[in-house]
């Protein structure tokens, strides 16, 4: 196995487009924020985690990825959750397509995480919104 792989810009773009386009399968996908420990893998079923908020993607979740290094895909508008499901500290998120198939999991918080919010303290009934979202795929280590 290569320990120092480098992707071409075309392959990096194709790979990132494939990932984000998966979110469009079955209609608009969503990002669901949870409290508690992140699942061991994106294939792991949910356990005691508490759903805090759901933010739906647009029907076409992301625009085309760039051919730059790193490749970047920018999300279309993401709908706010007008009433958070529960009160808790957001720790991680699960992204799923419109067919509810998990695409990826990531960390959530206020710093040194994958998705940054101004506060990770979500309150039941509060509006939870995301002003921008990008996914980045480095082409080299």
Structure at a glance:
It contains 1 helix and 9 strands; from the N terminus they run αβββββββββ. The protein has 141 residues and is mostly beta strands.
How does this structure look, described?
The protein is mainly beta and 141 residues long. The chain has one domain. Helices cover 9% and strands 28% of the residues. The protein is built from one helix and nine strands; from the N terminus they run H-E-E-E-E-E-E-E-E-E. The chain has one helix at residues 9-21, and strands at residues 30-35, 50-56, 71-74, 88-89, 92-96, 102-109, 115-116, 121-122, 134-137. The chain has a five-stranded mixed β-sheet, with no helix packed on it. The protein has a two-stranded antiparallel sheet with strand order 3-9. A two-stranded antiparallel sheet has the order 4-8. A hairpin with a 5-residue loop joins strand 5 (92-96) and strand 6. The radius of gyration is 16 Å and the shape is globular. The model has no long low-confidence stretch (mean pLDDT 95).
- What is the CA-atom radius of gyration, in angstroms? 16 Å
Distance between the termini: 14 Å
Structural class: mainly beta
Oligomer category: single chain
Mean pLDDT: 95
| Share of helical residues | under 10%
For the sheet with most strands, the description reads: 5 strands, mixed
* Molecular shape: globular
Q: Helical region count?
A: 1
Q: Report the portion of residues in β strands.
A: 25-35%
What is the total domain count?
A: 1
List SSEs in N-to-C order.
HEEEEEEEEE
Poorly predicted spans = none
Instruction: Tell me the number of strands.
Output: 9
Cross-sheet strand order for the largest sheet: 2-1-5-6-7
């Amino acid at each position: 196995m290569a320990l120092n792989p480098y992707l071409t810009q075309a392959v990096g773009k194709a790979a990132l487009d494939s990932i984000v386009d998966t979110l469009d399968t079955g209609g608009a996908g969503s990002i669901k924020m949870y409290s508690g420990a992140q699942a061991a893998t994106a294939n792991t079923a949910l356990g005691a985690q508490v759903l805090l908020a759901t933010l739906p993607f647009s029907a076409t979740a992301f625009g085309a990825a760039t051919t730059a290094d790193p490749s970047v895909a920018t999300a279309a508008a993401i709908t706010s959750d007008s009433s958070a499901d529960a009160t808790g500290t957001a720790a991680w998120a699960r992204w799923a397509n419109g067919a509810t198939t998990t695409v990826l999991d990531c960390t959530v918080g206020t710093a040194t995480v994958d998705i940054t919010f101004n506060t990770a303290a979500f309150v039941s009934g509060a509006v939870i919104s995301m002003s921008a979202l990008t996914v980045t795929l480095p082409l080299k280590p």
